[in-house]
Automatic annotation (TrEMBL):
PANTHER family: POLY-BETA-1,6-N-ACETYL-D-GLUCOSAMINE SYNTHASE
Full protein name: Glycosyltransferase family 2 protein
SUPFAM superfamilies documented for this protein: Nucleotide-diphospho-sugar transferases
Glycosyltransferase 2-like domain: residues covered: 13-191
Keyword field contains Transferase: yes
Pfam families according to UniProt: Glycos_transf_2
Length: 366
């Protein structure tokens, strides 16, 4: 189908998809099940070598689905940012050159993501509640039962807990970054970025985290960004340690690169401080905290009640932080050891990402 210049779209969805033949149909189906359906879906098949385009076209040709355009972008030199800008350029051309006035909202979602059926309806309500809000980030949760052994089950379980904690922090404190899994933007805000710098998503080979860089750009141009606990996105998790490490190193490395490029500002100081405190936290756990925990476990109430209180804190506090995920997650956190092992993994990709940002060139990820 083709868009018409005289059309007005309440919500347009952009779905960049690179080698996502496994999940793209499920992601698009979650858009068809929305309580408030999108007026247009744009799938940008980005440097794919599998059957992603075929499955996206199959969805587009189904008369029961929302109007869908599939754009093939086989020679994209600018990673996901280039795919998103390609979709936005097509949309701008289709509606007469500008997004504001013709498009109300633009939802950007990954092709391995499944949205809650009321996501669009709820995100529109959040945007409508404050004219200064330029974007609403999803609260992301992990989805998968694809595990083949106890190690994979442990790895996926820890990611589920990690996503759950991050989702809670996202809507209760500060939005560090709009989630790539699901970000709902006011079209006026994105048009403002185009007017300001010529593009929404920064097309540079160094940009590994287009969602974080765009979040900073929105804040710098005067817009608020927020998150809502009811705007839920379910995203795939990494089934192996190698894939998990590669993913998180890319995210962390991209964040460090963006912070170094901008320096200390009123929009970056919180992220920089959080990263530094995180490194101190890792040092505390590995050097002093583990020794405290071991000492506390060796004594009884009658001899060292304060150490027992410390042990109780180490057990109860992590468990209470994940109570919204259910008793299984609380039990895993209360056991302490599973989280300590996963903390070692997190520390590795954090430290390696910082070092790589300073001493190595950006990878060729697309």
């Amino acid at each position: 189908m083709t868009a018409q210049a005289d059309m007005v779209y309440g919500t347009v969805v952009l779905v960049p998809a690179r080698n996502e033949e496994v999940g793209v149909f499920t992601s698009l189906e979650s858009l068809a099940r929305q309580s408030r359906r999108p007026d247009l879906i744009i799938v940008v098949v980005n440097n794919s070598t599998d059957r992603t385009e075929e499955y996206a076209l199959q969805f587009a040709h189904d008369e029961r689905t929302p109007p869908t355009v599939v754009l093939n972008f086989p020679d994209n030199p600018h990673k996901k940012a280039g795919a998103l800008n390609h979709g936005l350029a097509w949309l701008r051309n289709a509606v007469g050159g500008r997004l504001d006035g013709r498009v109300g909202h633009i939802l950007v979602m990954d092709a391995d993501t499944e949205l809650h059926p009321k996501f669009i309806e709820r995100a529109r309500n959040v945007i409508a509640s404050d004219p200064e809000v330029g974007g609403v980030s999803a609260a992301c949760f992990g989805r998968t039962d694809l595990w083949r052994n106890p190690w994979q089950r442990y790895l996926l379980g820890m990611q589920i807990i990690e996503y759950g904690r991050a989702a809670r922090a996202r809507y209760r404190t500060d939005v560090h970054t709009m989630s790539g899994a699901g970000s709902f933007y006011r079209a006026e805000a994105l048009q403002g970025l185009i007017d300001w710098r010529g593009e929404v998503f920064w097309e540079d080979h160094r940009n590994l985290v287009e969602d974080y860089e765009t979040t900073l750009a929105l804040k710098e141009s005067g817009w608020k960004v927020t998150a809502n606990e009811l705007c839920i996105a379910y995203t795939d998790l990494m089934p192996t340690l190698r894939e998990l490490t590669q993913q998180r190193e890319r995210w962390s490395r991209g964040t460090v690169d963006a912070l170094r490029q901008r320096g200390w500002t009123k929009f970056t100081w919180h992220s920089i401080t959080t990263m530094i405190l995180g490194l101190f936290g890792f040092a505390y756990i590995f050097i002093w905290g583990a020794r405290q925990l071991l000492a506390a476990a060796q004594y009884t109430v009658s001899t060292h009640p304060l150490l027992l209180l410390l042990l109780a804190f180490w057990v109860l506090y992590p468990a209470m932080r994940v109570r919204s995920l259910g008793w299984k997650a609380m039990l895993v956190e209360a056991l302490i050891l599973p989280e300590l092992v996963y903390t070692v993994v997190r520390a590795y990709w954090m430290v390696s990402s910082i070092l790589k940002s300073y001493v190595t060139r950006v990878s060729a990820w697309k």
